[in-house]
Amino acid sequence: MKYSELKSYVPAFRPAILVSRLISFRALRIARFLSLVVATVSVVLIVFGKVISFMPSGFAGILHRPLQVLAPYFFESLLLSIFVFLIIFMTTSFFNSYYFLGLDNGLRRVKRFGTYPKISYEVALLVSGSPDDDLILGFLESPYGRLAMKRAGILTDEFRDFLSKRRHKIDPASLEISSEQTLGFATYAFGLYEKDEEFSKFLFSKKIQMEDFRNILNWIDRNITEAKKSARWWSRESLGKIPGIGRNWAYGSTYILDRYSRDFSTTAFFRDAGLGRDDRRPEILELEAVLAKDREANVILVGEHGAGAMEIIGHLANKIEEGNTQPSLENKRVVLFDSTLFVSTAGNKTAFERELARVLNEAVRAGNVIVVFADLAGFISSAKTLGADAMAIMADYIATPNIQIIAVADPSHFHESIESNSAIMELFETIIMKDTRDNAVIRVLEDACIREEYRYGIFFTYPALRAISDSAERYFPSGVMPDKAIDLLSEIAPAVKSTGGTIVTADDVLHMVESKTGIPAGAVGKEEKARLLNLEKVLHERIVGQDEAVVMIANAMRRARSGVGNRNRPMGSFLFLGPTGVGKTETAKVLADTFFSNQHTIQRLDMSEYSTDDSLQRLIGSADTNHPGTLSSMIRENPYGVLLLDEFEKTSRAVLDLFLQVLDEGIFSDMHGKAINVRNMIIIATSNAGSDLIWDIMREGGNLETEKVRVLDALIKSNVFKPELLNRFDGVVLFRPFNASELQKVASLILLRLKQRLSEKGIGLEINTALVQMLMNEGVDPKYGARAMNRAVQDKIEQIIARRVISGALKAGSTLTLTEKDFANGV
């Protein structure tokens, strides 16, 4: 549709546009309310005056005279208020006759001013208010344009500054917007966006990409449509929601079932739960199709808790109540069976079997009942504790077309208790609930945030919703989407309100996430910025040599913190190869202490303990023994930090294959099939494999960086690691043995740590040449590297200190100075 054609439809809406500009609809609503109040009060007073005229004298007699005198005024006020109400009603009706045009997407076309408008009222309003030479100005200064900018998190001053500085404007003659149906607000506004390159660049500079802006426009357009549908109470859709009188009289009553169940259509929680779940549309349609079958129309919904099973059922119940479902499902009742109440009431096997048979018999006789079991596996298990077989009782009833069952099960219980039971699987069809995609999650959040906005008087920007969706998936491993995203949204709203804020931004979301998880998620502060930009220098304060490892780690940390890294993998993954005592494990500890501000964020596994056939089950858990798994529990409890895998080459092949997935996807599944997220971890695997070859290269005077391929080829040929596993790491680092000058630096660092430990007890330590030289003499061992120094500190220096503390020669407040004589005497 060209702009000239689009503009030709505007006169059809001109009367309504004129009314909207002359009259405030907020004032009309207030006037309508006041007229109704005045009319009601007038009627009450007129009736009261008539009633007291028949009452005996006394107090009534005192009021009778004044009311009789004022009666004409009451009658006049009644007529006046009715007149005002009718004027308002007719004005609103006149406006609505234009306002609702296009609501049915062209199915109900109305002729106006000799033409059939192909645009909505909102588009007509935008075009009529836009100068022909500046369509973007007309859009941005309109109420809808300002709302779009506010949803985008762009301030009024910012977009007005853009308007004043731009160089080019859209040529209306070149504007052409395609639309198969009535051209709505979102399609028109997005057409302007596509045509105006400066405007799109301006939005991009504000971190609003094309898909974001499209979603914002669709969000606003959807709310406009919903408001119109709500206001048009006389439409078939609205009137269809009013239940018919006696609609269920043709079906039997269910007095016994009603004791143990709740009706979805009459319970507010379930009725509201089904609203706004277009993300589950495929499952809803599949559920409806299965239930519409002639026989064995029963379903098991399989999904994690919070995946939206009850919302799907609630949506179907709403469709049935509104008469918008398939004919075979019309007049059906969807009820939630309270299995816990039923089992506790029965108490024993005989009562359980008898009462369950009565409930099912009653439902079959009624002929229009769909029974929902929120936890079928739990119900079967509870029946077994009483000695009853629930499925054996239910099987004959379920096979009939007069009763239908919807069961809900989480994946672990489904695989353990239900899938292996052929009797159950023959009667049910299975619907697997897949994870909700990002756009669908944001769509759910758009609907959910409207309720929070009304509740707290705040305003959510679209970037805030995007941050909620991303953060819920990235930083909260437990739970499923969109449930955990909705939970996060519900927490953010009151938090922002409590600080006096009115607009929820992406920064508000990230600060909330950071406070809840301890994971840096917000904007990089000055101190953190300085630390990240100089991370190599900071790490080298405690790591001697090993430049390649330090550079790789620093780069990985900067990528992760800036958000440019691959979010579907761990923050970083490295394999450290080298001899014992060259700083592989120490580097991981320094990283945890420096970047994560706490050495406790390091989770360490000695992989030599996982070399047997049962190692994989010990790590991820076993369904047979119900052992949760060391690695699974470790990551669930501490999802952020450093995962150190010592002696990685000694673990079993099955465990190495597990880490192929972990390094590539950042997730693995535990014994119950639940996903464990390791995308907020730095994974460092250490190995002594190839140490002999590294020593040979160093003795030959070779360069490890140029000889790395030779070392890795040797590991692959000796079947230590598969090439695909080595390729999964972000970096494989060769740690070389320390030279003499580096060993001296290591000695100083070890003594400095000892000094810090002594200072906590109030004892000072002078680090002098004799002390360092003793460590160099006693603690240098080419085979064990710096570990020999740690043993020398323990056996020589700490032994002397311990003797002096116990003897009383060394007390708090004193400073210890050791000489060569002290080491010679050992005291």
TrEMBL record:
InterPro entries for this protein: AAA+_ATPase (IPR003593), ATPase_AAA_core (IPR003959), Clp_ATPase_C (IPR019489), ClpA/B (IPR001270), ClpA/ClpB_AAA_lid (IPR041546), ClpA_ClpB (IPR050130), P-loop_NTPase (IPR027417), PTS_EIIA_man-typ (IPR004701)
Boundaries of every PTS EIIA type-4 domain copy: 297-440
Keyword match Chaperone: yes
Transmembrane listed as a keyword: yes
GO annotation, cellular component aspect: cytoplasm; membrane
SMART domains xrefs: AAA (SM00382), ClpB_D2-small (SM01086)
Any one Gene Ontology BP term: cellular response to heat
Name of the protein described by the UniProt record: PTS EIIA type-4 domain-containing protein
Pfam families membership: AAA_2, AAA_lid_9, ClpB_D2-small
Taxonomic superkingdom: Bacteria
GO molecular function per UniProt: ATP binding; ATP hydrolysis activity
Bilayer-crossing regions: 30-53, 73-101
UniProt keyword terms in alphabetical order: ATP-binding, Chaperone, Membrane, Nucleotide-binding, Transmembrane, Transmembrane helix
